Each structure stands twice: as C-alpha cells, then as structure tokens.
# Entry
Amino acid sequence: MSNGHYLIVSYFVVAFVSLCLGLAAYRALRRPFAAIAEAVAGSMRSRLLKRALALSVAMAALLGFLSVSYRGCDMSYEQIVKDRGYLVQKNREQLQHAGNCIAYVVLAWGVVVVVCLVVLRRNEDGEEESPRD
Amino acid sequence: MSPHSIVFLVSFVIVVLLLVLIDRLLRPGLRGLLEEVTGLPAATEFYLRAFVLVIVLVALAALVGAGHGDLKDGAHFMEYVWSIASGLQDMFQNLLIVLLVYVGLITVLMAALRRKH
# Structure
C-alpha cells in the first residue's frame, strides 16, 4: 500500500475507531445515567439528558480526533506523505487525543450527576419535612 | 518482531496489570463509600463505571501515543527499558491527573450530599 493510500485509509479508519470509542463509553454509562436522570427529571427531560450525554461523548471523540493536525511546521502534502513513520505517529496522536477527550467529558458528566443527586436529595428532604409543617 | 512491537507489548502488559491493580485496590472502598453517600444504586454504578472508563481510556491513550522513535534494531537492553519508562511516565502523569480530578469530584459529592443531623 502506498503512503498516499495509507493516509486516506488510516484517516477514516481512525476517525471511525475514535467514534466507536465514544459510543462504547456512552453504552457503558447509559443505563445508570438513565436511571439517575429519570429519578431527577422525569421521563421527558431524562430523554434530553440521555441524548446530551450521547452527543457530548461522540463529539468529544471527534474533537480529539480532529484536534491533531498533519500540517505541523508548514509541511507540504508531499513531505507529509513521504514519511510513513510520521503518518503512523499522527494516527497514534489522534487516538490518544480522542481517548483523553472522552475521559474528560466523562468526568464533566460526573459533575452533572453530582448536581442531579443534590437536586434529588433536596426534593427528598423537602418531602420529609413538609408533613411536619 | 521489531523493537517498537516489543516495547509496545511490554508496555501494554504493564499498563493492564497496573489498571487491574488500581481497580482491585480502590473499587471495593469506592463502592462502599458511594453506596453510603448517594443511597442510589444507579449513582454508585455510574461513578464506578466512570472511574473504570476514565483510567482505562487515559492509560491506553498514553500507551498508544507514546512514540518510541528512539529505538533502532540491535538496541541494548537498557535502551528498551528507557523507552518503556518514557512511555510509562506519560501514562502515570495522565493517570495521576485524572485520579486527582476524580478524588475532587467524589469529595464534592460527599460535601454536597451530607445529611443534615
């Protein structure tokens, strides 16, 4: 396979793999997150939250992938394609950035779940206190 | 087998062993803490899965991103060791950052959900 073909194939394969990583992360979190969202926001709003989780994780994967530029130090297309090692290194960087971005988004959703749990706890406390009043 | 493949495989085995060790050490205590603090099984499950996801993704990302471009055919044993160590350094750094962020998150969770007595 020539370097030109390798560049085209590897670019789209790595994009697909990055997206699959994001979707795998979403699938791992979907069920417990749906249960929390439903307890806090009801079924209508929980659907919105679940979609937001799916979208944000997929977008983080793509953002990480897209954040790697091949054109470092004003390299021309010919210079980029000439070096197979450089192409492989860029593919590795794309996967690395995608993985890191997904991890950071998962942590950010952890903060969202903290807020959801605080709201849930307040609602429970409010229900417990109201009969005494 | 090329030097790059050897270094990658050895690093991969080390990273997997390390992840299993971290998971075994922290998961039982973390589960107990989360069950006590949140009182919601789904929340416990969410944070445990998020924990595993984050450490696996960050460790594997660092492993994949490590270049090992300094290794040539016929390299000495210690050159392999240095190359593996250089890759592991990135991994430990990233792992430490996300673990600290996770600890911060759990601390906020505990502070926010403490019961008023």
Remarks:
- The mean pLDDT of chain A is 88.
- Residues 37 and 43 of chain A are 8 Å apart (CA to CA).
- The longest helix of chain A spans residues 3-66.
- Chain A has one domain: 3-129.
